[in-house]
Amino acid sequence: MREGAELPKLVLRVEADGSLRLPPEVLQAAGLGGHVELDLEPGSLSLRSAADTEGDDLSEEDIVAACREIRREVFEEKYGRRAP
Amino acid sequence: MAAEPRRVFVDTNVLASILWKPGSATHAVALLAAGRAPTLVSETVLDELARFVHREGARRPAIVGQHRVWLQKQAPWSDVLPDPDRNAIERLLGRVPTEDAPVVAAALAGGATYLLSGDRGLLAALPSVGLRALAPSDVRRLHASGDWPWETVP
Fold first, then answer.
1. Burial annotation A2-38 (CB, 10 A radius, 16+ → b, else e)
2. Is the CB of B25 less than 8 angstroms away from the CB of A60?
């Protein structure tokens, strides 16, 4: 988009069940469809399509366990011994 | 003179959770950022996070790009601490899980008051070394209470 161009108006509607509905033209412009996840960070918002997320999910417990395993691996490499 | 804001050391699993999927960790770090809480990580934490991204990035390529953005442009931490020396690590053995000692020693050396982690085993050990345990879900409760030690988010 050229600098100074007027941004299209984006209307987000929160449904009764708490889900967020995005206008079809926004999904189409972003190349997304169906289930979309929003990543909110201070100062930015990004969309992620379901294609990135379906069928390969990790729970928070899975992530904690994976990080614990990585920590043991790093400890062993850096300090030359296995953690009990 | 105003007291320096309390520092929060952020554990690897919190950052990995944010990368993986928005949830309580995302919300916790956003609240801390809005409250201008100094958020610390160590070299080891960044090493571990890079390994997580390398390991899981094939399943979810979006985390590779987001991790790169963090490293190159805008990270959810405000300072990176050096890894502690062996003596500092040795002093913690037997008080925290062995493999956590380098991270906990870095947090203590960096003047952290809180350690934010989703690992209940680590959190349980922290009071014995003088750190306050903070799980991501605790941040929302702390924010809603009258004890929020950082700037109040409107």
1. eeeeeeeeeeeeeeeeeeeebeeeeeeeeebeeebee
2. yes
Judge whether B78 is closer than 8 Å to chain A, CB to CB.
Answer: no
Which residue is associated with the tokens 């984006």?
A10
For residue B25, what is the nearest residue in chain A, using CA coordinates?
A: A60
| ipTM for this prediction | 0.94
Return residues 25-84 of A near B (CB < 8 Å): 37-44, 48, 52-53, 56-58, 60, 63-64, 66-68, 70-75, 78-79, 83-84
A66 and B17 within 8 Å at the Cβ level: the answer is no
Tens place of pLDDT per residue across chain B (154 aa): 567 789 999 999 999 999 998 899 999 999 999 999 999 999 999 999 999 999 999 988 899 999 999 999 889 999 999 999 999 999 999 999 999 999 999 999 999 999 999 999 999 999 999 999 999 999 999 999 989 999 986 6
pTM comes to 0.77
Give the domains, in start order, of chain B with CATH numbers: 8-145 (3.40.50.1010)
CA–CA gap between residue B103 and residue B129 (Å, rounded): 12
